[in-house]
Design brief:
163 residues, Ubiquitin-like (UB roll), DNA polymerase, domain 1, 5 helices, 5 strands, 32% helix, 15% strand, binds FE2/S2 (inorganic) cluster, metal ion binding
Length: 163
């Protein structure tokens, strides 16, 4: 069991987007706050802070997680990918391209989480049906788009990733 004296931080060492970071934080620090405030990776958003909306979704040790549900201390030693880790050499990832080309965002607040969930989902389901897409992103809420173009974008992204 982790014992922390009053006023002491816990050491969190994580590899995020290929870079190792080591920080001392309060044991109550949420992973999403660690990512945004300690690492400055503000692409990951906080929508509800209660595991409902999915705006904070990142990949942790190969699985998508809602990072407002995980303590930073629980992520110690983990490999994490955030939205900033998807593009390379200033080139958008095919999923990001598909979201852009299918007008799958409006305000964009849900988009990083939606794309990270899509990234995970398409690894598990490289050639999904529309129904599987809808099921795969059901934990991510979008207040703007009505989901239609998001579903189209995920199906388009699956084609791009297969070609
Ligand atoms: S901010 Fe994490 S699920 Fe909404
Ligand atoms: S684009 Fe605005 S919440 Fe999804």
């Amino acid at each position: 069991m982790l014992v922390v004296k009053k006023g002491e931080g816990v050491k969190v060492r994580v590899r995020v987007n290929g870079v190792w970071y080591e920080k001392y934080v309060s044991p109550r620090t949420l992973l999403v706050d660690f990512i945004r405030d300690e690492l400055g990776l503000t692409g990951t958003k906080v929508g509800c802070d209660t595991t409902t909306c999915g705006a904070c979704t990142v990949i942790m040790n190969g699985k998508s997680v809602k990072s407002c549900t995980v303590l930073a201390a629980q992520a110690d030693g983990a490999e994490i990918t955030t939205i900033e880790g998807l593009s390379s050499d200033s080139k958008l990832h095919p999923i990001q391209e598909a979201f852009k080309d299918n007008f799958a965002l409006q305000c964009g607040f849900c988009t990083a989480g939606m794309i990270m969930q899509t990234y995970f989902f398409l690894k598990e389901h490289p050639n999904p049906t529309e129904e599987e897409v809808r099921d795969g992103i059901h934990g991510n809420i979008c207040r703007c788009t009505g989901y239609q173009n998001i579903v189209k974008a995920v199906l388009d992204a699956s084609k791009r990733l297969r070609s």
